[in-house]
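WARN retry 2 of 3 for item q-0093 after timeout on previous attempt; input resubmitted unchanged.
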Amino acid sequence: MPAPYRGGCLCGAIRYEATAAPLGAGYCHCSLCRRATGAPIFLGVAFPRVSFRMLQGTTHTHASSARGIRHFCGDCGSALFFELLDKPHQWEVMIGSLDDASDIEPSIHVCVSSGVGWLQIADGLPRRP
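OK item q-0093 returned
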């Protein structure tokens, strides 16, 4: 799918778009991402911040760590994206919140040392502890 990439929350109150190509996509196995998504693994895609804009609604935020601020819908609770404070040039979008992510492929696994032991993904991608 060429840009723009559009997405939003489960109830439809929040809508956003990114008008540039993704910077990259990857899996995170850390406990913060697991808690934020309610899943054993998080899959995110980074977009240039200058290409990202809200189309509808206002997100609620939570500073989940000293490194990041998570954005979510205050009505339905959908996790949407987060800001990594050490990477102010990009937005990290929850890939499941995109309308169509069929052409986005992850390229890495991060924080694998803190992942759940029973989840094994044999995709051959690089892994960082």
